[in-house]
Automatic annotation (TrEMBL):
Top-rank taxon: Bacteria
Record has Iron as a keyword: no
Organism expressing this protein natively: Paralimibaculum aggregatum
Keywords: Stress response
Protein family (similarity comment): Belongs to the small heat shock protein (HSP20) family.
Positions of the SHSP domain: 27-137
Name of the protein this chain belongs to: Hsp20 family protein
PROSITE patterns in UniProt: SHSP
């Protein structure tokens, strides 16, 4: 079965990586932990909030890797063995990735009452036309 590429349109020059981008986004959406919200603050600012109950700020890392925002959580060893009657708070290690558009930058992250907030902003592109000179032989 042949697969139709999203970037097969001849007017979309330089978008060969679009298929890979869509696949990365689909893989990221399949992750279920931790739950998160995405808030659009205004036209160019966003906030991702992850529910990370049981994790301390030092257990978390926020990085930008290859055009993706990557949030990781890993708890240190708990002191002593405990016998839980019910364990509903997941403390397993996790990695949650978000594919970032071009010009999207992480502007900060802060931790508050079991929630990790990551702020993003879309930087304005230069919208000035560029004149291209035409060479002639001779």
């Amino acid at each position: 079965m042949s697969r139709i590429s999203l970037a097969s349109n001849p007017f979309l020059l330089g978008f060969e990586g679009l298929d890979e981008l869509v696949e990365r986004a689909q893989r990221s959406s399949a992750e279920g932990f931790p739950p998160y919200n995405i808030l659009q603050i205004d036209a160019d600012r966003y906030r991702i909030t992850l529910a990370v109950a049981g994790f301390a700020p030092e257990d978390l890392s926020v990085t930008v890797e290859g055009g993706s925002l990557v949030v990781r959580g890993r708890r240190g060893a708990e002191a002593g063995e405990r016998e839980f009657l019910h364990r509903g708070i997941a403390l397993r290690p996790f990695q949650r990735s978000f594919v970032l558009a071009e010009r999207m930058e992480v502007t900060g992250a802060h931790f508050e009452i079991g929630l990790l907030h990551v702020d993003l902003e879309r930087r304005a592109a230069e919208a000035r036309p560029t004149r291209i000179p035409i060479d002639t032989p001779g």
